[in-house]
Amino acid sequence: MTDANAGRRRYLEVAEEVLRAVAVGSISAGDRLPNERQLAERCGVSRSTVREALLALELGGVIEVRPGSGCFLTGMGVHAGALAAPPVDSSPRELLEVRQVIEPPVARLCAGNIRGIGLRRLEDLLDAAERQSESEADGPGAEPAGTHDSVSLSLAFHRELASHCGNAILSSITSHLVDAGEHPLWLLVDSIVARDRPTRTRQIAEHRTILDALAARRGDVAAQAMAEHLGALQARIFGPEVVPPKVSRARRHHSA
Q1: Is residue 248 part of a domain?
Q2: Which residue, of 77, 92, 108, 205, has the fewest CB within 10 Å?
Q3: Is 170 within 8 Å of 162 (Cβ atoms)?
């Protein structure tokens, strides 16, 4: 087993096992998947790992979980062994939630597989994004830019990065998730946020932090940088996460 394979998340291997079964026609839309115990035995993993894999497949639209009945293949999220594009009207929040599941592990794998030409391509995209950012108008009155604006270049960075992860399935999943042409609603929301030049500058800086980790072949650092970048993106678009205040034990007893 190579170092890259050894570092792969086990739940992704389970998810790939399901996708391979679809690719060879072992299961098709509407079929019920084996239960957790059977999948755990077949893949040689724990049932908790299987649950992680099923969650990833559910988030990707590959399976539908029916309480009390099991997991069923939807037929909407797979083709030829890889995830197809989510629906064109997918919620931007849901798309970002799936990206937060998928892209940090992709960045970790990429650190072990990317080569000089890939690093140069990512660097070129960031340089182009900086030049484009300087040329774009700022403020609430600015119109969304065209197909080569800062947002599209940012998404291209994510797509290019995933193409060097050494896994065709994960690369395909990520490509569909960040393809601007497939998700016009996401592109509109992201473009509105990116009208502010300081925001564009921060986003490029976050991408450079990821690139630096890849160049240093530090997988865990790259994964963490990607997670922090997507978390910051979530905050920029939807606002900071609000944590409900804790209710004291005494107050709970009084209420009871």
Answers
A1: no
A2: 205
A3: yes
Q: Which of 204, 185, 184 is nearest to 194 (CA)?
A: 204
> Where residue 157 sits, what CATH number does that domain have?
1.20.120.530
Is residue 82 within 8 Å of 172, Cβ to Cβ? Answer: yes
Overall pTM surpassing 0.70 (yes/no): no
**Segment 67-71 mean pLDDT:** 90
The residue type at 2: T
- 60-77 core/surface letters (b: 16 or more CB in 10 A; e: else): bbbbbeeeeeebbbbbbb
Same domain flag for 20 and 135: no
The answer to whether position 247 is within a domain reads no
With CA atoms as reference, report the closest residue to 153 among 135, 128, 171.
128
d(CA 99, CA 109) in angstroms, rounded, equals 15
Q: Would you state the pLDDT for residue 112? A: 95
Structural domain for 49, as ranges: 3-79
